[in-house]
Amino acid sequence: MSEPRPRIGVVTFPGSLDDRDALRAVALMGAEPVSVWHAHRSLGDADAVILPGGFSYGDYLRTGAIARFAPAMESVAAFAAAGGPVLGICNGFQILCEAGLLPGALVRNKGLAFVCRWLTIRVENGEAGGHESSGNLTIGRRGELLSVPIKHGEGRFVASPDTLERLEGDGRVAFRYASPGGEVSEDFNPNGSTASIAGVWNEAGNVLGLMPHPEHAVDPDLGPTGGQPILQWLLSAARARVPA
Amino acid sequence: MAPVGGAGSGAGLTGATDETQPRTPAPPAEPLHRTLGLTDTEYAAIESGLGRAPEPTELAMYSVMWSEHCSYKSSKAHLRTLPTEGPRVLVGPGQDAGVVDVGDGVACVFKMESHSHPSAIEPYQGAATGVGGIVRDVLSMGARPAALLDPLRFGSLDGERNRYLFGGVVAGIGSYGNCIGVPTVGGEVKFADCHSANPTVNVMCLGFAAADALLQSRAGGPGSILLLIGAATGRDGIGGVSVLASQTLEEDAHESRPSVQIGDPFLEKLLIEACLELKDLGLLEGLKDLGGAGLTCAVSEAASGVRLGADLDLDRVALREQGMEPFEILISESQERMLAIVRPEDVGAAQEVCAKWGLTGAPVAAFVDGGTLTVRRGGEVVASLPARSLADEGPEYDRPAERPQWLDALSADDPARAPAPSSLEDAFISVLGSPNVAGTRWAFEQYDQLVQGQTLVGPGADAAVVRIEGTLRAVAVSADGNGRYGFLDPYAGAVHAVAEAARNVAAVGATPAAITNCLNFGNPERPEVMWQFREAVRGMGDACRAFGTPVTGGNVSFYNESAGSAIYPTPVIGMVGILEDYRLLVRSGFPAEGLAIYALGDTRPELGGSEYAEVVLGKVCGRPPAVDLEAESKLHRLLAASSRANVLASAHDCSDGGIAVALAESAINGGVGFDVVPAGGAAAHLWLFSESASRAVVAPALGSERALEELAAAHGVPCERVGTTGGGRLRFGDLFEVSLNDAIVVYESTIPRLMSAKRAAV
After folding, report:
1. Strand-strand pairing, B736-739 and A156-158
2. Residue A16 has pLDDT above 50, yes or no
3. How many CB pairs under 8 A join A and B?
4. Helix (H, G, I), strand (E, B), or coil: what is residue B599?
5. Which of B212, B251, B569, B721 is deepest in the core (most CB within 10 A)?
6. How far, rounded to the nearest angstrom, does the alpha carbon of residue B434 sit from its chain's CA centroid?
7. Contact A17, B451 (CB under 8 A)
8. How many C-beta neighbours within 10 Å does residue A84 have?
């Protein structure tokens, strides 16, 4: 018996760049890709939503600052509030922070330059809340290493001390940048993110944002496949919402 | 006709000083056409063609269209000698970009261009708008831009201004390419003192389209509407082609900064999507990009291409600023604009698509019978000219060419006769750590290499490899030039550039298919520069004929000199090759220990113009290595056949720095050392650093050694086992050895170290 094929919506804003890549990646993972247009409120009956990478509206004002006002974002906020799984990648992560769906903010890289590089991230909490469940609804066990690329100029995660304390205490740091051996240190922090944070969960555990690009790490012909467990989580969370 | 006044920016057409923005006034006796860069003879030709004196606005239009940059007046007689046809060529020179058939119904559209002059003045915007321009060339053929390559040349990084230019250009390329979602997959970075005042900034773009759905820039009929899509037109880039690109840059060049365009990559991204959607919906008859010479060029070429005229109404052009003169609107090079040729009944639907992407689509012109381009402003005719005379009847010169005498002494000084270095290890480290050889990660990490999800091999390899979605096919692409070789022998330099580009493409397993080029030279009005150019074109043509890789287009960048000192004559070749099954692609790194290493091709004592001669001996002299075009072709065929037979674990072109560098790069890229036995005895440095052409370093897959030897014999390529992979050291027999880690540090740290020297001030 085949599992139901979840519908994954990918929102295209003006200036989205990795939208087609995200659609291709979820299709490769077995989902039905659904293109969502920023100016429409409809999410196309998606069971999960991806906000893809890119430079929405050129990011001339502040990354994600304009995209958050798109009509589709009202629907994404409502969808997330109702427990719908949402994944924000790079610019999508920035938009989720601007929209208040995730804590913190992403500012200019420590080195000021854009960085495109394959690197290693360490799974801190494969699901929000520090659980160690098994099965498909977790990205992986704590300490698991994933090889993924980053490509951004403004990916330095910052948050207030209170917020950071809650993120760490509640088990909502999803990933940290790490050495190939899994060591977390400033030497392997590509953008100066606080506590090497590469991705975070929302409180309810259904919204995940990260700067690395899992959609560019699913096809073995192109390189490592560290993006697969991350997209697999989204597919499983979506599948759980498909009526049997 | 309406009177034409002076302008706030750009050269005022009356030659008078504008009092609000003082400029250096033209000498009062200077006739307008000379101020605009036209010669007296050219002016006379315009007058006799029109049968009357041109109005100032008309003269401004001629000055940009008949500029060197737009008209190719010094080069076209030579360019006509190039081979342009072949079974795979779908579109050759003369359109916005060349096109080859890559199979499975897919066409590859590609073109290279220079943005050196703007980059010398304002590196960030100059380089950024170069990216924007080449992307629109590819787009205008109806293809989705899929990859960028950036061949760059600067003066020594010891100079603060060179660091500023290099940093600015790389940041500019990154800012633009990254924001439009086109990956930068390759290019090269070279340094030579002759580039200090004149950096060379070339950019190549390739894109893909269904072979049966290409757009033509020659399209439409009487009544067709020309929709100007994208940015509003401003005063940026006034006279970019005539002021910047067709003159040498002298000391007051920074005053030309208003002639540099300003880029808006977000708008370009919208333009790409809107144009591709217009095409997919069948709403386009044709598409033209607006680049050099702006609206004048796009409209006159579009009309002339279908032997029509056009009525152009400047009142319909959305303007960015007030008080723009007609000539400014006509020759502005404001970026991010395209001209769509649309049937009258489709205008509404086309404008809706533009609106969806937040763009205006203004019907600024219509094709008319009769061949006259009529320009109106406020209802009055401001120009009325035969479109053909602007686009196709520019002057053509057979400029005098003469081989410079100073070459004799340089040629006679053969660096292979110099004594062997006192330490081979020191020589090796110097060559490996030379900025021309060392890794360019510092630059390419600032570029998005991955977007669009098809990059199989990115920057830093012999050739970049981009997969074609929905097929097993991939395109391999390499951009190469060698300035020193061109300086010592421009014919040989061009042959080498084509040979190396083809070899790079072959090294990954692809079959070289066709080239584009950017020909970077000094002032063509000087006979020695013209001789260099003529020789380079001859060499490029001969090599392309030998390899069966026709020229599908290209770009000529002259006037790259200051104070009479020119850059190295540098033809940069952009080679496209086809890989029928990307799963068979061969990478350059040694992937495992215990593999045999073979040198393909003959190594001769050839150090003329080599990296070794420059870095170790401190001189650029001698004759470039000889190229036997037949031997070179055999090597390309062997490499492609070896890939198809799946016998290679790695392959790497052998060029700058010789076998020593080729081996080191394979070790660094694969993370595996080697042990080789250098030939040459007491003259081992000749074997290590010779840059003999037509060679590669390969490692056959375990058990495929015999298969490789047999294939090499069948193809008539010398094939000699030189060592074995393995271990953490680069071991050159008993001569010397270096740890892999040390080699990596030398290779990777050179450019970051130079760039982190005192932060460059503007």
Report:
1. unpaired
2. yes
3. 83
4. strand
5. B569
6. 23
7. yes
8. 21
